[in-house]
Amino acid sequence: MGTMAQAQTEKMELLSYPGRISATVPGKAALARQILADHRLDTVQERALRILTGFNAGTGYGEIWIRDFNTFINGSLKVRKPEDVKEALLLFFKVQGADGNIPDGVIKEKQANIGYQYAYSNLAPGWASHKNTVETDQESSLIQAVRKYIEATGDRAVLGEKIGDQTVFQRMEAALDFVLAERWSAKYGLVKGATTIDWGDVQPEKGWGVALNKETKWAIDIYDNAMFLSAIDDFMALKPAAVNVKKNWKEIAKGIRKNVRKHLWDNVAGKYIPHIYLDGSPFPETFDENKILYTGGTTCAILAGLHDKKEIRRINNQFLDAAEKEKFATIGMTVYPPYPVEVFPNMAAYVYQNAGDWTWFGGRMIPALINADMPAEAYAEIIPMLDRVIKNNGFYEWYDVQNGKASGSGDFRGEAGVLYDAVAALKKWAQQAK
């Protein structure tokens, strides 16, 4: 009897992060029952599905953004017809550039009245598109979304559908080719982009921060490379047996993995350096950027398979340590510490992507922890995210870690979609472990 009781209890280190696991964690079966009995998970999933009936990012956004749509497409497929979801997905291939680039957003032509440089395509009448050129994740996001759509629906025939004179699969490879042609550093063998905060889309310099300009400082970071790695893996997983590809994408991915570890990963600190600069840094020499922890890109790196369980545990502890330093933070706090406004004039500290708290990325860590056999941590770390949604009676774009205020777009579908997927992953684990 005593032996069985001992086997049912797993001793783990106490985490002081509010709402986190206690010193003694129940065995897997008991933890599974606790998860399945927690109605907060059901409540948040149900609320998420209510707002995932639309495809634009949320209130305040007229566009369908591919980086957002990629993160809520699974939820969309639960409440919308597959044909509707496919139509929205294929819209991005219809506005694809001649060079293979994928725009960020598509919007009804009549609503295209913000400061973007809009483009138009004969393949998508009535629609306008635009690209936040400082980013290098649009192509990767679309390919990831296609795989999610196919895995959920079984509709592999979509890969052979013709859009203009190319199939969807050919257009997917053209998107990957664009990154290699226009966003590639031959010196480092890695993907490049403009200097932004982690996964963000705003440059430090004042002005229209989402567009490349004469002040742009090209750099390499983990987010762009992790997203591209996942996209290559998805592309190759979807490749029809009878179709040949233009490049050896598996070898390209192998090289990226090697070069990420060589150039971006700081093994001593157990974290990623924020940037490798290709033409000088936008920051003064007196500013030590390497002290900053990037959480979103690091989470994407875990999901891309760049870390073993030991490293994931160390990374997670760093996320928890950072969150403990701010009263209302979760592991979704983008970076820590924030960039001082003196070096990042386009975004004040603790605002938006500069150490704002985004469940849109923090929630992605939950499946990553489950995959690393850390279900107790996954459950503990999602709790404050769930409680926040319930308390605010909605999904918000980001949260202020100093006062807890919900900010940005309301009914933010990115947060809703990521939490829907995170809860689904927890429930799946619990059903198998109970």
UniProtKB/TrEMBL annotation:
Keywords recorded for this protein, A-Z: Glycosyltransferase, Transferase
Gene3D superfamilies assigned to the protein according to its UniProt record, in alphabetical order: 1.50.10.10
InterPro entries hit by this protein: 6-hairpin_glycosidase_sf, 6hp_glycosidase-like_sf, GH94_catalytic
A matching Pfam family: Glyco_hydro_94
Glycosyl hydrolase 94 catalytic domain boundaries: 58-339
Glycosyltransferase listed as a keyword: yes
Keyword Cell wall biogenesis/degradation: no
UniProt superkingdom: Bacteria
Name of the protein in question: Glycosyl hydrolase 94 catalytic domain-containing protein
